[in-house]
C-alpha cells in the first residue's frame, strides 16, 4: 500500500495539474483526490514489497523441492522397472522405423 506521504504527494500533483480556472479549488480537490485514492487503492488486493519477496522465496523453495522429488520419483521408477526404461529409451524414432510401428526384430 502507498504510504500516507506518497498518497498526499500524488493527490497534490493531481490538483496542481488541474486547469487554471479550477486552481481556486485546489485544496478541496487535493482532499477529494486523496480520499478517492485511499478508497480506490483500499479496494485493491495489494501486498507490500516485503510480503511479495517472502512469498517469492517460498515459491522458489517449493519449486526446488518439487524438482528434487520429481527426479527422485524418476530414479525410483527406473530402479523398479529397468526393462521398461530400456524399451522406452529405444523408441521407433530412434530405430528409423515409421511412427506407430514396432521396429523389426534383428534377423538371426
Automatic annotation (TrEMBL):
Location in or out of the cell: Cytoplasm
Q: In UniProt terms, what function does this protein have?
A: Required for efficient ubiquinone (coenzyme Q) biosynthesis. UbiK is probably an accessory factor of Ubi enzymes and facilitates ubiquinone biosynthesis by acting as an assembly factor, a targeting factor, or both.
A single Pfam family it belongs to is: BMFP
* Annotated family: Belongs to the UbiK family.
Q: What is this protein called?
A: Ubiquinone biosynthesis accessory factor UbiK
Which NCBIfam families has this protein been placed in?
Answer: UbiqAccUbiK
Which residues lie in Low complexity bias regions?
77-93
Q: What organism does the record attribute this protein to?
A: Thiohalocapsa halophila
Q: Which PANTHER family match?
A: UBIQUINONE BIOSYNTHESIS ACCESSORY FACTOR UBIK (PTHR38040:SF1)
- Spell out the HAMAP family in the cross-references: UbiK
Q: Which gene encodes it?
A: ubiK
Report the domain of life of the source organism.
Answer: Bacteria
Read off the InterPro entries from this record: UbiK (IPR007475)
Region Disordered, annotated ranges = 77-108
Q: Which UniProt keywords apply?
A: Cytoplasm, Ubiquinone biosynthesis
Q: In which pathway does it act?
A: Cofactor biosynthesis; ubiquinone biosynthesis
Amino acid at each position: 500500500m502507498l504510504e500516507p506521504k506518497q498518497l498526499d504527494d500524488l493527490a497534490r500533483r493531481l490538483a496542481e495539474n488541474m486547469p487554471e480556472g479550477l486552481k481556486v479549488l485546489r485544496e478541496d480537490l487535493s482532499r477529494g483526490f486523496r480520499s478517492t485514492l485511499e478508497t480506490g487503492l483500499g479496494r485493491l488486493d495489494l501486498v507490500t514489497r516485503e510480503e511479495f519477496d517472502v512469498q517469492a522465496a517460498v515459491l522458489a523453495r517449493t519449486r526446488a523441492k518439487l524438482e528434487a522429488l520429481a527426479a527422485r520419483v524418476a530414479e525410483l521408477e527406473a530402479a523398479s522397472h529397468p526393462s521398461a526404461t530400456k524399451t522406452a529409451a529405444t523408441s521407433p524414432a530412434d530405430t528409423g522405423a515409421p511412427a506407430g510401428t514396432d521396429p523389426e526384430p534383428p534377423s538371426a
